[in-house]
Structures are given as C-alpha cells and as structure tokens.
Amino acid sequence: MPATASPHVFDTTTATFEQDVLQASLEQPILVDFWAEWCGPCKTLGPLLEKVVASYHGAVKLAKVDVDAEKQLAGMFGIRSIPTVVLVRDGQIADGFAGALPEGQLREFLDRHVQALPPADDEPAEAPAIAETPEQAIARLQQAIATDADKPELKLDLAVAFMQAGNAAGARAELDALPANLAEDDRARRLRNQLAFADALKDAPTAQVLQARLDQDPADHAARDLLGVRALIDGRTDEALEQFLAILKADRGWNDSQAKKRLIAAFSVIEDEDLVGTYRRRMSSLLF
C-alpha cells in the first residue's frame, strides 16, 4: 500500500511508535491502522480511513503499521486479525474495531471520540458523506468477487453485509463457505453469534405474548431470555443485557448457564465498548 502524502497520515514503526503515537496522543487522538500488503480488506479500508481522517482537518491523525514489517509492535497490541484499528488517546487505547467498516460506520466510530476541526481558509469544505447501505455493499462485493474470486476475505465482507441487510440465510451461506483461516476471524465469530441469536427467535412467540408470560410469572426465564434476544436484535442492547442479567441473578445455572452464554455472545456483537465493559463487570460481580 503506497505511502500517502497527507499531513494527517504517517507510517510508524516499533522504534518510532512511542514518540509518534503514544506521546503524540497526549495532544490529539491517534488512529492506528494495523494492515498488510496481502490483506484484501486492508486495501479497502486504508483509503477510506485516510479520507475520513482528512475530513477532520487535523483533529485526529492516522498512523499505519505494516504487521509483516512490525511483528513486535503487532504482538504488543495482541493483533489477531487484520485490518484492526485502535484509537489511542492520552497514551492509552480508548477504542478500536476489527474488519473493514463502511465509511458511514467509520465516521460514527470517530464521532464518538473526536470533534472535527473547521477546514483551513485555503482548504475547500468537504461535501457531506453519504453512507453506503448494506444493499449497496452487497452489490459492490458481489461484483468484486465476480472479478476476483481468489480473495476469500471478500466473502466474509459479503456475509457481514448480508447480515446487516437482514438476510441471515445469505450470511450463513457465505460464512459456511469461508476457508479455515477466515472462519476463526473475529468478524466471523461475531457473525456466528449474531446468527445464533437470530436462530433463537425462529418459531418464538411474539414480544407481546412473551411479555404477558413474564408479567404473569416473573420466574419464566425462557420468556425473559427470548425477550432479551429480541431486544438485542432490535438494537435495544441495554434492555437485552438487563434481561440476561436478571436471569443470571435469579438462577445462574438455569438451562445449562444459558444466561451467562447469552451475555458473552452479546458482548461479542455489541460495538459499544463502554457498555460492554460496564455489563462485563456486573456479570462478574454475580458470578464471583
């Protein structure tokens, strides 16, 4: 991946990382992109990261780490799959994600931590970005796969896009076709958990019926469990985690410790790290 001439993007190494990233992050957040030349998703994500970072006009910088050249640095961060991106602020990791996110989600990620600066007087204002829809991502990835079928990582991207579009069957088909090395990718594991939650609702009663059961019998853990799964799939993550915690508090061994398993699986699919950290601590307080 060629080096960029942008003043907001730079390559860093094990030797320069402390000064370039850790020390610099005391003044402004630094986004660190762990990538490799052979990684297809990295080639998709890299230009998007540079574009998005540039739109913040210096409020954040992007440091790029070639994991093949900087194995020690990648090891220090426990990088298990690429691309992996972490945000460093005040000398510590503040947030991160794995996989090639679309532009809209990249902006949502950065907006949680960084406020863009206005452009310089001689810099034209950037037009508002239009986020790629899951359907657009599916069409783009299917075309890319038809052009270059030797990049299995594109199939993982397609599986994620199918799931985002609500097509669980399509996601499952692409996931099942992945080679062994990608089947254990963090995104693949997250997707399997998402599919497991979707499977749990097959033939399940409606939310109204489940709530009526729970109102009649607060110890109906099966109803509470399904209400939690439905809340999670609908994006009401706090509500979902509260339902699973309530079961764990009442009977942590219920149905072969299903509440604990639900919580752990939910943690892997929820992107809000602060929320996950809060509920991890609450789960631990009930278990230990």
Characterise the protein shown here.
- The chain has 14 helices and five strands.
- By secondary structure, the chain is an alpha/beta fold.
- Helices cover 55% and strands 10% of the residues.
- Helix 6 runs parallel beside helix 9 (186-200), helix 7 packs across helix 9 (186-200) and helix 12 (237-250) runs parallel beside helix 14.
- The radius of gyration is 21 Å and the shape is globular.
- It folds into three domains: 9-111, Glutaredoxin (3-Layer(aba) Sandwich); 134-199; 207-287, Tetratricopeptide repeat domain (Serine Threonine Protein Phosphatase 5, Tetratricopeptide repeat).
Q: In which order are the strands of the major sheet placed?
A: 1-3-2-4-5
Total number of beta strands = 5
| Count of discrete structural domains | 3
Low-confidence regions: none
CATH architecture of the largest domain: 3-Layer(aba) Sandwich
Provide the CATH top-level class of the largest domain: Alpha Beta
**CATH-defined topology of the largest domain:** Glutaredoxin
Q: What is the count of DSSP helices, taking H or I runs of 4+ residues? A: 14
- Give the ordered list of helices and strands: EHEHEHEEHHHHHHHHHHH
Looking at CATH, the homologous superfamily of the largest domain is Glutaredoxin
Indicate the mean pLDDT.
Answer: 87
* Share of residues in strands: 5-15%
Structural class: alpha/beta
Tell me, briefly, the overall form. globular
* Cα radius of gyration in angstroms: 21 Å
Q: Describe the sheet with the most strands.
A: 5 strands, mixed
Task: Give the termini distance in whole angstroms.
Answer: 47 Å
Helicity, as a percent range: 55-70%
